[in-house]
Every structure is written in structure tokens, then in C-alpha cells.
Write a structure and sequence with these properties.
Elements lengths: L8 E5 L22 H13 L4 E4 L11 H4 L4 H8 L7 E7 L5 H14 L4 E6 L4 H4 L10 H19 L27 E2 L4 E2 L14 E4 L4 H10 L2 E4 L5 H17 L9 E9 L3 H13 L3 H12 L24 H12 L4 H11 L3 E5 L1 H13 L5 E4 L6 H16 L12 H4 L8 H6 L1
Parallel strand pairs: 1-2, 1-11, 2-3, 3-4, 4-7, 7-8, 8-9, 9-10, 9-11
Antiparallel strand pairs: 5-6
Bound molecules: flavin mononucleotide.
Flavin mononucleotide binds next to strand 3.
């Protein structure tokens, strides 16, 4: 570790209509995700705030009753490729599932984005949670939860192997000799695994970061194992409780060490929705206004989705039933939500109010100073290495964060004033990946 004061990392979770399900109803708020000017505004604001990462979620399914930004959205890599031309520093993270598609496509797409953006690409590896997505891919349902992760682990290994099928400097393009490629710097992968057979090499040269950044968000044991083994960044779910956040943070860092890696090699960034007001009271009123716009039907569907159990038949003012945390859909959100419901003795109505606000993520409100105090406490207390900021709506709530909270964090020496480098890896304090390890192993 260097003597330089540890600084936090910040990402922004981008939903054009806002992270609060009803955020788009705020006066002046953007009302769509499917607009280049909207996305450009958010990406350039992230860069103004010296953010590490602009982060796009995805699913290959739509349900008309879902969060508005999940019903109408860009294909992430297409969007990020376009954004790479109107930004210069902010990292560009896109979600792509390992339950559909092929590693070759994914390796190629992210290598392309890494070239187009001069080293700012990140891949959020997800295993998908909606059975309905399978219906769009000639299947009836998703594979079962743990098998999805076994597929994901091999998928990621193949993608990385393909990225390593080129060494730096393989394109010689010597006009005198007529040699275009140095063939000693390109190799096949010859992968024959349980789920994939991939010959290689990839048809694109090694990209600026060597490997685009790998992001992971799953919270179950196999999800954490994938993070500890293969990820460069984790996007986690917390419910605001410091003890459970500390336990989850420490346990994941211990797994990282078991894989022979240093704890700093895997920054952990919980999602947080900061509701910012000139006074704490004003921030609270803003949250209450947003909550008043929620419809009960949407909220119930969202809670059922997040905890993986259908709650529509249960009395709203009764206690939250004892559901198992491990479900076929996933565990990250069910654990955070059911743990909070038990601890705070919530009714189902309480739970749906909380869940609908930030779709199961942590919500905190107050003045810019109070928000900065909270983030500082979590960061210096070893509960987080930074945060994925989830503005309730855009552009206003994100502008407030960048213009009011970021300067406060900078004044405290907790956050950069300027980017030190131009790649996402450099923002995260991670080295460029070279192909030496694979070469040594082969
Ligand atoms: C913070 C967070 C963000 C996620 N974003 C996406 C996403 O954009 N698309 C998707 O298909 N799954 C997403 N997931 C789902 C996970 O990648 C994973 O498939 C799911 O959480 C089940 O795994 P688990 O049981 O390990 O939590 C996300 C999960 C978390 C916790």
C-alpha cells in the first residue's frame, strides 16, 4: 500500500427515469432512458464529478409493469460505444449475462469498447434472474441458480483466455517487409470445457487495459466466490445496517485473500440512493413526495421480485412472513431486505415502501454535509471502498450530488480532485492486465 491517503471510488447507476421508481415524476426530471442526449448529459455529469464509473444495468426481457427504465432501454454496449466518443475519462460499465450468448461474442464486444474508449470498458457479469428472459432465447426457463454460476465461472475464464490470445505489439504492419502480424504474439485458446468449446484466437488485438474491468454483483456464496476469484470490482447491496455491511465486506475480502489476492484488488461499492436537501427536513419531505407517487401494485410486484417470493396474497399490515433467503432468482437482495424486515419488525407495507424507493438498495437522506458524513463513516470504518450512487432522478438529483456532496468529500481529502489516469483500471488503482500469467501457464 502506498502512503497516499486512501480515497473512495464512485460509480453512478444510470436509469434515465431515475433510480426511484417514481423519480421521473419530479418536475424537470428526464422521463426516458432511451435518449442519447439524456445519457450524454448523465455521462458528462459523471465526468465533471470525476466519477470512476458510469454503470448500465441490463436484462433481456421486459415487463410493462416494471420500473420505467427497465421497459425501454438501449442495448448497453451500443450505448457505451456512442458515449465513449463524447467522454474522455469516466469508466463505462455494461451488464451482459452469461446465461445467454457466447463468450466469444462477449470477449469481442468488450475488447472493442475498450479500444473505442481508450481503456475505459467494464463488464458487469450477471447470471440473470428472470425466468421470462429464457422465453426470448428458445428456452422455457433459466438454468438453476448454482448451475448458472458454474456456467458463469467457465464463461468468464473463456473470455479472459480470449483476451489473452493476443500479446501487445502483435500488429507489426511493416510496409517494407510486408509483414502484417507477428504470429508469435497470437495463440489459440483451444478451450474444451464442460459448457464451452472455443478455439480462438480472438479477432481483435489486445485492448488498452489488457483486460476490461470485470464487475460482479451477486451476493450468494457462489456469487461471492465468482467475485473473489475473477472480479475487479463488486457492486453490493446493503440495507443501511452497519453491522451486517461490515460482516459482508469482511467476509468477501477474506474470500479474496483465500484466492491469493490482496484485499485492495477487489474494491467493494455498495449501492446508495442519497436524497439531498438544503435541510434534513427538506430532504425527508422530498423522499416522502417521491414515495407518495408509488402505486401499490407496482410496489408489491417489485418486492416479490426482489425477495423471490410472491407476496400478493399476504395481508399488507401483517408481519413480513419468514421466507428463506436463498431463492432460485438470487440472494443478494432477499438477504438485505429480509434481514432488515426482521431487525426492524416491519410489516409488508413497510417493506414495500422501503423496497420501492431504491429497488431494495440503501436510501439515506439529509443535507450534503450529512450525506458526506455518512459516506465518510462507512468508508473510513471499513464498510465500503466507495459507493455506486443511485440518484432518485436525473439530472437534478445527480447534479446535486456532484455539485454539493463531491466538493465536500474532496475538501475532506476523501475523493480525487482530478483523474490520475485515463483508464478505468487506473481510477480503481488496478494495474493493466498483461498476458504473462497465461503464457507462463501454457
Ligand atoms: C447490485 C446488483 C445489481 C445487479 N444488476 C443486474 C443487472 O443489471 N442485470 C441482471 O440480469 N442481473 C443483475 N443482478 C443480478 C446478479 O447478477 C445475480 O444474477 C443475482 O443477484 C443472483 O445472484 P445471487 O444469488 O448471487 O445474488 C444484480 C445484482 C445485484 C446485487
Amino acid at each position: 500500500m502506498s502512503d497516499r491517503k486512501r480515497q473512495m471510488h464512485l460509480g453512478v447507476f444510470v436509469l434515465g427515469t431515475g433510480n426511484h421508481s417514481a423519480g421521473w415524476r419530479t418536475e424537470g426530471a428526464f422521463t426516458t432512458s432511451c435518449s442519447f442526449p439524456v445519457m450524454k448529459n448523465i455521462a458528462q455529469t459523471a465526468e465533471r464529478g470525476k466519477f470512476d464509473l458510469f454503470f448500465i444495468s441490463d436484462a433481456v426481457v421486459m415487463d410493462p409493469g416494471d420500473h420505467p427504465s427497465f421497459t425501454n432501454r438501449f442495448e448497453p454496449l451500443t450505448l457505451l460505444s456512442a458515449l465513449s466518443t463524447v467522454t474522455s475519462h469516466v469508466g463505462l460499465g455494461a451488464t451482459v449475462s452469461t446465461s445467454f450468448g457466447e463468450p466469444y461474442h462477449v470477449a469481442r464486444a468488450f475488447a472493442s469498447l475498450d479500444h473505442l474508449s481508450n481503456g475505459r470498458a467494464g463488464w458487469n457479469v450477471v447470471t440473470s434472474t428472470h425466468d421470462k428472459a429464457a422465453l426470448n432465447f428458445s428456452r422455457q426457463r433459466l438454468q438453476e441458480h448454482d448451475l448458472r454460476y458454474e456456467i458463469a465461472a467457465e464463461f468468464v475464464d473463456v473470455v479472459r483466455g480470449l483476451w489473452d490470445s493476443w500479446d501487445d505489439g502483435a500488429v507489426v504492419a511493416d510496409k517494407t517487409t510486408g509483414v502484417y502480424l507477428d504470429k508469435t504474439k497470437i495463440r489459440t485458446l483451444d478451450h474444451k470445457g464442460r459448457f464451452f468449446q472455443v478455439k480462438g484466437p480472438l479477432n481483435i488485438e489486445r485492448s488498452p487495459q489488457g483486460h476490461p474491468v470485470i464487475i460482479q454483483a451477486g451476493g450468494s456464496a457462489p456469487g461471492q466466490e465468482l467475485s473473489a476469484r475473477s472480479a475487479d470490482l463488486v457492486f453490493s447491496v446493503v440495507n443501511g445496517d452497519k453491522t451486517s455491511a461490515k460482516n459482508a465486506y469482511d467476509s468477501l475480502k477474506q474470500r479474496v485473500v483465500k484466492h491469493g489476492r490482496a484485499p485492495d484488488e477487489l474494491p467493494i461499492l455498495p449501492g446508495v440512493m442519497p436524497i439531498i436537501g438544503e435541510t434534513d427536513e427538506q430532504a425527508k419531505e422530498q423522499l416522502a413526495r417521491l414515495q407518495s407517487w408509488l402505486t401499490p401494485t407496482n410496489a408489491l410486484a417489485l418486492v416479490s421480485q426482489r425477495i423471490g417470493h410472491d407476496i400478493s396474497g399476504y395481508p399488507l399490515d401483517g408481519p413480513v412472513p419468514e421466507f428463506p433467503e436463498k431463492t432460485e432468482r438470487g440472494q443478494a437482495f432477499s438477504t438485505a431486505l429480509l434481514d432488515m424486515a426482521r431487525r426492524e419488525k416491519m410489516t409488508l407495507r413497510d417493506l414495500y415502501n422501503v423496497t420501492a424507493a431504491a429497488r431494495g438498495h440503501w436510501v439515506t437522506y439529509g443535507t450534503p454535509k450529512r450525506i458526506a458524513d455518512t459516506l465518510e463513516e462507512w468508508f473510513t470504518g471499513g464498510l465500503a471502498d466507495g459507493f455506486v450512487v443511485m440518484p432518485a432522478y436525473f439530472p437534478g438529483a445527480f447534479d446535486d450530488f456532484v455539485d454539493k456532496v463531491v466538493p465536500e468529500l474532496q475538501r475532506r481529502g476523501l475523493y480525487r480532485h482530478e483523474y490520475a489516469g485515463t483508464t478505468l483500471r487506473s481510477h480503481l488503482g488496478l494495474p493493466r492486465r498483461d498476458a504473462v500469467l497465461r503464457q507462463a501457464a501454457s
